[in-house]
Amino acid sequence: MTVPLPEGTDRASRELARILLDTGAMQPDWAPAFAAVPRSDFVPDLAWAWDEEQGRSIAVDRATDPEGWLAAVHADIPLVTQWDDGHHTGPEPGRLSTSSTSQPTLVMSMLRDLDVRPGLKVLEAGTGTGWNAGLLAQRLGSRQVVSIEVDPTIAPRARTNLGRVGLTPQIIAGDGELGWPAGAPYDRIIATYGLRHIPHAWLQQTRPGGIILAPWGTHYSQRDAVVKLTVADDQHSASGHFTELVGFMKARDQRTPYPEHSTRVPEFPGNADATQHTTRTAGDLGGPWDVQPFVIGLAVPDATHILTHDDANTSTTAWVYSLTDSSWAAATWPVGRPQTRSTVYQSGPRQLWQAVEHTLDWWDQHDRPAIHRFGLTISDDRHTPWLDTPGHPVPQQL
């Protein structure tokens, strides 16, 4: 079905809208809001886009390259708008991206899954540039949208951006994890940053039967998955399935506390136990956009991992670190050569490699389920991941 776009939509924006409609990321009922709230009104003059060929973020500057800037704005890519919590200046990228305008496909697919309709009230955690809040306000009315931004320098900019398109949702500079009780109850809560814990305040501020849509994950995986939770009648629990793997900046107080490798492993292998071997390969652990790291994290949530290559790129080593004690594990495989047996090195009170392998075995035994078969139940401060139904929790590898 061909969906007509509103008159006045410029060519580049129309092309992007067509892509979003054709892929199903954007539903037709969101097309008028997308046209009325152009992304270009929310992207600052200096932003950063990821360059696949260079393998790094590069600046797109409206002042020096207006055509390049506009092309980036209307591309289906995320654009970084802040580095290092605002402590970075200049055109070169900083160390850690800390605010952005998300990929349009992701923005629209999450708004689709939020399942809004006229009359509903929405709380957004993570205002950023204000584009997402603007789309919601255009669809529902400004009085129906409250958005919270943790960075006090970003919130007023978002307010200005929204005013540019005639929208006035309530923008709060504060901690999104506390919600905004003054505006409660909400029919929907949406988060635009990655979480390790869904705040209990959100349950209490959402109407029974309301929806919380948020990227959630563990410290083990680089990626999160969007979870669509339905709040129970008592407002003390919520449950629902994951919808898709995503890459989001993490809540500032929930970033992964990566251990200092030289402190954890002063010399390798040192006195680590090397009596065990694995027939698993580096590929079995999964890449950044594979489901395996996310699934391992569901079973081993208090650990993290990285893959490293030696200087000559002849071998790959998987490192797993506990975040609760001094335990670590490692296995190394030669690059480009079949390997059926690799030595596993483990140190500390936990057998981390066994935890990873047992989880992969469990995943294999259940026919390698995709992300949408998994779900999450939260109750007060407890988060329980499950497969297919809440009655089948993912076995925890403690």
Helix content: 10-25%
Rg (CA only): 22 Å
CATH fold description of the largest domain? Rossmann fold
Order of helices and strands: HHEEHEEHEHEHEEHEEEHEHEEEEHEE
List the helices and strands and how they pair.
Blueprint: H1 11-23, H2 31-36, E1 46-51, E2 56-61, H3 66-73, E3 79-83, E4 97-101, H4 104-114, E5 122-125, H5 131-140, E6 145-149, H6 154-164, E7 170-173, E8 186-191, H7 200-204, E9 206-216, E10 224-231, E11 237-246, H8 261-264, E12 273-278, H9 291-299, E13 303-309, E14 315-322, E15 328-334, E16 342-347, H10 352-365, E17 374-379, E18 382-387
Parallel strand pairs: 5-6, 5-8, 6-7, 8-9
Antiparallel strand pairs: 1-2, 3-4, 9-10, 10-11, 11-17, 12-16, 13-14, 14-15, 15-16, 17-18
Helix pairs in contact: 9-10
Overall description:
InterPro entries: PCMT, SAM-dependent_MTases_sf. The chain is an alpha+beta fold. The protein folds into three domains: 11-101, no CATH class; 104-246, Vaccinia Virus protein VP39 (Rossmann fold); 261-365, no CATH class. The protein is built from ten helices and 18 strands. The chain has helices at 11-23, 31-36, 66-73, 104-114, 131-140, 154-164, 200-204, 261-264, 291-299, 352-365; strands spanning 46-51, 56-61, 79-83, 97-101, 122-125, 145-149, 170-173, 186-191, 206-216, 224-231, 237-246, 273-278, 303-309, 315-322, 328-334, 342-347, 374-379, 382-387. The strands form four sheets. A nine-stranded mixed β-sheet has the order 7-6-5-8-9-10-11-17-18, sandwiched between helices. Strands 12-16-15-14-13 form a five-stranded antiparallel β-sheet, with no helix packed on it. Helix 9 (291-299) packs across helix 10 (352-365). The radius of gyration is 22 Å and the shape is globular. The N and C termini lie far apart (51 Å). Residues 1-9 have low confidence and may be disordered.
